[in-house]
From TrEMBL:
Signal sequence segment: 1-25
Protein name: Discoidin domain-containing protein
Domain of life: Bacteria
Organism (species): Kitasatospora herbaricolor
SUPFAM superfamilies xrefs: Galactose-binding domain-like, Metallo-dependent hydrolases
Length: 686
């Protein structure tokens, strides 16, 4: 055989080198350790971010059969797809790899001069190094609100650190989209919500592919609490879809006129449920056709109030609060960039310091939406609702003993925490610094002990809120790397991506991968008991969800029953205020008495029934002092419950069950100059 020529040797060498380079490009990215197991993918995009966690993620339940793990009750994985597609720069994953996923918006190049939303939210001139991978010189950062913080590998690190439930709130805002200078798509909110839901499923498939196919990855979208429990038992992350948007189902209002109907709400709820959504906000930032909002403060509040005007034709309106709960103060700080969007001659109004509550509460359409969510076993987010709206929502949930209520990121008035726990709801705190988070956790610790519940956090990442800054390298109790996860099974080191390594002590909570580091900081600052409450969060969240799924509406024994009254108001021959109007199932009708104190409404159940609960939906004319009385014969009465501090609205009265054929609501003192007026009375055995 002839010997190969020198040129042939060179050709073989070149081909060998090319093949080696291709093999290197296609090879899995280096891992933090050489360990392998079910939690280690067979391949990753190359190159990719590090995870920097070793050890097997914990599986199974505790000795009592409870699932374990942390709950992020409020995150925005896909916010980059909302707001016109260019408000949040970067993506949580990309088929083209990390360099494509973690790159800045095109208008931010070369130096951030046109990063308008960045300098609106952060201050300064917005200038920054736009390069993401691999240098990450200026972002992600705890105070950069416009850059991707939810890269899939960083979420993986949080899962490896003990997180077991993540609520991905699909989010957008049509008005912000419409006024922002840069966008690459339309501003319809429901279109954005649909896209974000699909992208979440795409991310699940993307991760599954790394582990060998459908269902094999750690990122599992769940649609019921039983699925979630099984996912967590397997040691994986249960991902729940929620919605946080300003005008769901097209339910905006213009000059106080609703732009949607009950049919729109039903169609919208059915569609969202079909997408897998199981929790949602009914209003967010702007008053809409469903409810008024809890205000934002300072310059941001001024900017959002401008958006409120552009969306609805009206600014926020305030009044003195009726009770101890209150909305956030609007503040009078200027927001020149936003105020320039107002028509000539229109200015943001001034507000009286003593009037801190939104005049708008839960509308009739909003009540219809709340009841529609209950029928579909969905969970209601009360954060962002005005005090007036949240109070009415609580009334409705309490009247049905419905536990599906969430406060996921510190926007509910804190005085209502026990009311939420008493219903069976779940609370999480915004991802603030370790000192503030621990102090707030300790403030509500006694309530969690009383109701035997765990706690959650709401990172709100990609939610334009700001995250914990560094406590400093010289703090006396810094996070020391590496550290052990709460369960003790994983070792967590500093997180590295490309050429950048993050340290919570000096960088703060710059991105989602630093959630475990932040929890370790809470342990050092607040103590192990705060972290233990957080570690019980998964069980408590799923308890609320499961109880919502298993809720059964009670039978209203008063529906269509015979009713009589001491008096009935008569002033309009075309409108009836007869006693039967309070039991006809129509909230648009009502019984109204004459204008004097001692009045009663009697309901005949037809036969003796066990009575445990009575609901009273007062019209504006309500009873300040009244009794609920029971009788077997309609002659001899026993007081089952009484109050002299009634404040109207929707009252739910509970007492020890007693048999009765007749139930009487006996008004003793009016709350207004008028008589007593009830839209609907409900009587229940449960």
């Amino acid at each position: 055989m002839a010997r190969p020529s020198h040129s042939r040797h060179r050709l073989i060498a070149v081909l060998s080198l090319l093949l080696a380079l291709v093999a290197m490009a296609l090879a899995p990215a280096p891992r933090a350790s050489a360990e392998t197991g079910w939690w280690t993918p067979s391949a990753r995009p190359a190159p990719d971010s590090g995870i920097n966690v070793t050890g097997e993620p914990f599986k199974g339940t505790d000795a009592q059969g409870h699932v374990r793990g942390f709950v992020d009750a409020h995150d925005h994985l896909m916010a980059n797809e909302g707001f016109g597609g260019r408000l949040i720069c970067g993506k949580p994953f990309s088929e083209l790899g990390v360099a494509d996923a973690l790159k800045d918006c095109p208008e931010h190049y070369p130096d951030g001069t046109l990063a308008i939303f960045d300098f609106i939210t952060k201050g300064g001139d917005g200038k920054h190094d736009p390069v993401g991978w691999p240098t990450f010189q200026d972002w992600p950062a705890h105070d950069s609100l416009t850059h991707q913080q939810n890269y899939y590998a960083w979420v993986e690190r949080a899962w490896r650190g003990g997180e077991r439930v993540l609520v991905n709130d699909l989010v957008t805002n049509g008005v912000i989209c419409s006024v922002y200078f840069f966008k690459d798509r339309g501003c319809d909110e429901m279109t954005a919500i649909r896209l974000e839901a699909q992208k979440t499923y795409d991310m699940q498939a993307y991760i599954d592919k790394m582990y060998g196919g459908p269902g094999k990855g750690w990122f599992r979208i769940v649609t019921d609490s039983g699925q979630a429990r099984e996912v967590i038992r397997q040691g994986k992350l249960a991902v729940v879809l929620g919605v946080e948007t300003s005008e769901p189902f097209g339910c905006k209002q213009i000059l106080d006129v609703a732009q949607c109907s009950k049919a729109d709400i039903d169609r919208g709820l059915d569609e969202l449920y079909g997408l897998g959504v199981r929790s949602m906000f009914l209003c967010h930032k702007f008053d809409n056709a469903l409810c008024g909002v809890r205000f934002d403060e300072g310059a941001l509040g001024t900017a959002i109030n401008v958006g409120q005007f552009l969306s609805t034709g009206t600014f926020w309106q305030t009044e003195a609060c009726a009770g101890p709960q209150h909305d956030n103060p609007i503040g009078l700080a200027a927001a020149p960039a936003a105020e320039q969007q107002l028509p000539q001659g229109v200015a943001v109004p001034a507000y009286a310091g003593g009037a801190q509550c939104n005049t708008r509460g839960l509308t009739d359409l909003g009540e219809y939406a709340v009841r529609g969510m209950m029928q579909r076993k969905m969970m209601l987010e009360v954060d962002h609702m005005s005090v007036k709206a949240a109070g009415r929502a609580f009334d409705i949930l309490e009247s049905a003993s419905y536990p599906g209520v969430l406060s996921s990121h510190s926007w509910m008035d804190s005085a209502w925490t026990e009311r939420l726990y008493k219903l069976g709801g779940f609370a999480a705190q915004y991802m603030s610094g370790a000192e503030a988070f621990s102090a707030e956790a300790r403030r509500t610790d006694a309530l969690r002990d009383k109701y035997q519940v765990g706690y959650g956090y709401g990172t709100d990442m990609n939610g334009v809120g700001g995250w914990p800054g560094p406590r400093g390298a010289d703090t006396p109790n810094p996070v020391k790397y590496p550290f052990r996860s709460t369960d003790g099974g994983s070792l967590i080191d500093r997180q590295t991506a490309g050429q950048r390594t993050w340290d919570l002590n000096t960088d703060g909570a710059a991105h989602y991968g630093l959630v475990p580091d932040w929890i370790e900081d809470i342990r050092l600052v607040g103590g192990q008991d705060v972290v233990d409450d957080l570690f019980r969060g998964a069980e408590s969240y799923l308890h609320t969800w499961g109880a919502s799924e298993n809720h059964r509406a009670g039978v209203n024994l008063a529906a269509g029953a015979s009713a009589s009254a001491s008096t009935a108001e008569w002033w309009n021959p075309f409108v009836s205020f007869a006693p039967g109007r309070a039991v006809d199932g129509d909230p648009g009708t009502r019984w109204a008495s004459e204008w004097s104190d001692d009045q009663w409404l009697r309901i005949d159940l037809g036969s003796s029934q066990l009575v445990r609960r009575v609901t009273l939906d007062w019209e504006r004319a309500y009873g300040r002092a009244y009794r609920v009385e029971l009788s077997a014969d309609g002659v001899n009465w026993t007081t089952a419950w009484s109050t002299d501090t009634g404040d109207g609205g929707l009252d739910t009265v509970r007492f020890a069950g007693a048999p009765a054929r007749y139930v009487r609501v006996h008004g003793l003192q009016r709350g207004t100059q008028w008589g007593y007026s009830l839209r609907e009375v409900g009587i229940y055995s449960t």
